[in-house]
Specification:
Phosphorylase Kinase, domain 1, globular, 248 residues, six-stranded antiparallel beta sheet
Length: 248
């Protein structure tokens, strides 16, 4: 069995303490989420809060793929977060990752700084009367435009993966999480509009966001609106028909 532990130089003084926590993960920290696939816990060290994500143990075939062919989700999360920060895009600061190999990959963990956010994008969907909703949607569109301009194709651009901080006086910061599915590539206009599809936007939301994106990109509102709506509807239809099939 061997391990690969990589830590950001900013936190190298905590390397041993963090490793200790990871090696006793089931007994340390408090649960943030306890999903079927991944578990997230929060720990405090020297007055700083960290989130630790333990990825699902891969099956025998996947564990070899992660050893020889593909980077682990933990490594990708760490590398992509570092890249986003270099681009001036917010994401919880990447602290470290650990991979444990025995034959193939057995376990992997990703550590980031914990951020106290105010709400996530889901709340804007569920509550049409959310305070300053239109303004937040416009600023979120600006944020997504910045991603596209920096050639960031965030494949999991979905409601639970953007955390929002409200600074008061109409300023909001957006933080991307769950980063392991991302491509860095130039995106044409169709690909950009396709990138909005997972956000589960209502017609009103599409209207507001298409208007903002059209202004930023220099495209017409009509073209922007038609494409964004087309991709959103197609995705929602696909998900809903899958749910129906499962029920039957």
């Amino acid at each position: 069995m061997h391990e690969n532990f990589i830590i950001n130089p900013k936190y190298s003084h905590l390397a041993e303490k963090l490793k200790e926590v990871l090696h006793d993960f089931s007994h340390k920290g408090e649960y943030v989420t306890k999903g079927e696939r991944n578990v997230i816990k929060m720990v405090q060290l020297e007055g700083i809060s960290f989130n630790i994500k333990k990825f699902k143990t891969p099956n025998a075939f996947q564990s070899l793929v992660y050893k020889f062919i593909r980077k682990s989700k933990a490594k990708r999360s760490f590398e992509y977060a570092s890249k986003l920060i270099d681009f001036g895009i917010n994401t919880p600061f990447p602290v470290a990752y650990l991979e444990v190999f025995s034959g193939g990959l057995q376990e992997s963990f990703y550590i980031s700084e914990h951020i106290d956010y105010d709400f996530d994008f889901r709340e804007l969907i569920h509550n049409p009367r959310f305070k300053k909703r239109n303004e937040i949607l416009r600023q979120f569109t600006k944020f997504t435009f910045k991603l596209h301009e920096k050639d960031v194709n965030f494949l999991d651009h979905s409601p639970g993966n953007t955390l929002i901080m409200d600074h008061g006086n109409n300023t909001y910061d957006f933080y991307l999480i769950d980063l392991n599915r991302m491509r860095f590539e130039p995106m044409d206009f169709n690909a950009r509009m396709h990138n909005f599809r997972r956000l589960w936007l209502s017609k009103t939301m599409v209207k507001i966001m298409a208007q903002e994106y059209a202004e930023l990109s220099g495209k017409s509102f009509e073209e922007t609106h038609a494409l964004m709506l087309k991709h959103s509807r197609a995705f929602q239809k696909k998900v809903n028909s899958k749910k129906l099939r499962r029920k039957k």
